[in-house]
Structures are given as C-alpha cells and as structure tokens.
Amino acid sequence: MIIAKTREEIELMRESALIVSKTLGALASEVKPGVTTLHLDKIAETCIRDHGAIPGFLGLYDFPNSLCMSPNEQVVHGIPNSKPLQEGDIISIDCGALKNGFYGDHAYTFEVGEVDPRTKKLLEVTKESLYKGIAEFKHGNRVGDVGYAIQKYCEDHGYGIVRELVGHGLGAKMHEDPEMPNYGKRGRGKKFIEGMVVAIEPMVNRGTHRIKQHNDGWTITTRDGEPSAHFEHDVALVDGKPELLSTFKYIYDALGITSDEEDAFRAQAITN
After folding, report:
1. At 126, is the secondary structure helix, strand, or coil?
2. What is the pLDDT along the chain (272 residues), one digit of tens a residue?
3. Angstrom distance (rounded) from CA 220 to CA 243
C-alpha cells in the first residue's frame, strides 16, 4: 500500500534528503585517484552524524557500511574496501540518512580523474534519463509511465536497463510501496497519489542489461564486464507535480559545474 505523506512530513523528508545531498557534496572533491572507498565511507558517516542524522544504510539488512560504493562494472551495493580508486574509473556512491523518523536515499556516479568519452556518454545519458522519469511522476500517471520514459531514452542510446533492481517508495522505511522499475509500459502499474514520495534511480549498463550477484551477498556487477551508471533522486508528488527533495547542487558546487537541470522540479531554489 502506498503511504501518502503530509506536507509537514514531506518537509522532514526534504531535510533527510538534503543531508544525503550535502554528504555527497562533501565527497565530490575527495573522489580522486589513490583514494580508497573505505576512506570515503568514513567521511560520509562523519558528515551524516554531524548533521544530527544516522547513516541509513549502516546495519540495514546487515549491510556493513554507510555507503554503497560501486565502481566501473559494479552496478550497486558495492561494499567499501581498501583498494584505491584509479584514473579513469567511475564510481556510483549511494548514500542514506535517517533523521526525524524519515529516510533520505540519493546517489550519484562520479568520474575519477579523466574518463574515456564512451563512459562519459553513459553517465550523461543515465542522468538525463533520471529527469525523463521524474517528469512523468505526476497526477494521473502510473508507475509504468516513469519506467517507460527511462527505458526508451536509454535503449534509444543502445544501453541496457537493469531489470532485477528498481527504485522504490520512501518514508519511515527505506523501502516502501511502490516499486519503481526503470522499464515498463505506459499506463500500467500503480497510480500515483498526492503526497507520495519515491526514490527514482536509473541503473544503466553500457552493454547487456544482464547482471550477476557475487558471493558476498551484496555486490552486483554487469554480466559482460561493461561499466554501469546509477543516479538517484528523492521526489514527492506535491500539487500533482514532481517536487525534488534531494539535489546535486552541492556536488556541482564542489566540482565547479553549472546546471539548471533541477529547476523544473523545484518549487523554490536551494540557497544554503
């Protein structure tokens, strides 16, 4: 059952989402060759706790860390370790925070140093597909409308959409109804209702959509070893339209990037 949130609850969720956004922003300038994912994980935990929140992933389903760190062919759920990042890597950093009884859950795929043009294009298209999906999260639409928009955009570029892993509702639990696949048919699936909050998160492979799970019970990689990209936003349905609760602004500020990609989905600008 989809759990609608009040306006007050949505504002509490915005606070949790922005803590995650600020944490990803703090990591942005630290993602570079020679840095370990375990080091980044420690920075993230400190940042989350300094904002009065609890790491949302730490201990969830027995996950051992605060971040899911998934480089290159890893899709999601990678466990931080002591292996240094290398020039030309990409890495999905997925982060969660729990504050005031509500979760934020938000991800970005970073470039490590100089990345080859084919991989840059994968990241670009995956992020663009996220906003294609968000635009369909509106009154009168259904889950399949969001999935269709993401799937069509990515497959038109020749990429594979992961089937086994999906976005989800978000609230007092990390995973609520409805599941939000990144594929689907228009007009199918559960209907969107005012006040619902979802995490929309395209997981897109440069090659096949097929994946495999490793023996650690967490790490997911592409079946063919091609790289995978992952971007995620938290979005509420407010007045029948999508309202972003999370932001990439802090990442862009750290990296010197100018972007207006979020403007259409935000009632008021983020100023802090």
Report:
1. helix
2. 999 999 999 999 999 999 999 999 999 999 999 999 999 999 999 999 999 999 999 999 999 999 999 999 999 999 999 999 999 999 999 999 999 999 999 999 999 999 999 999 999 999 999 999 999 999 999 999 999 999 999 999 999 999 999 999 999 999 999 999 999 999 999 999 999 999 999 999 999 999 999 999 999 999 999 999 999 999 999 999 999 999 999 999 999 999 999 999 998 777 66
3. 30
Contact 73, 22 (CB under 8 A): no
55/35 Cα distance (integer angstroms): 21
Q: How far apart are CA 19 and CA 232, in angstroms?
A: 14
Contacts of 135 (CB under 8 A, 6+ apart): 149, 242, 264, 265
Q: Which two tokens stand for residue 53?
A: 């929140």
Between the alpha carbon of residue 118 and those of residues 98, 121, 183, the distances in Å are 36, 5, 23
Q: DSSP of 180-228, one letter per residue?
A: E-S---TT-SPBP-TT-EEEE--EEESS-S-EEE-TTSS-EEETT---E
Say which amino acid occupies 126.
Answer: T
At which residue do the structure tokens 């949505």 appear?
10
Whole-prediction pTM value?
0.97
Cis-peptide into 178, omega within 30 deg: yes
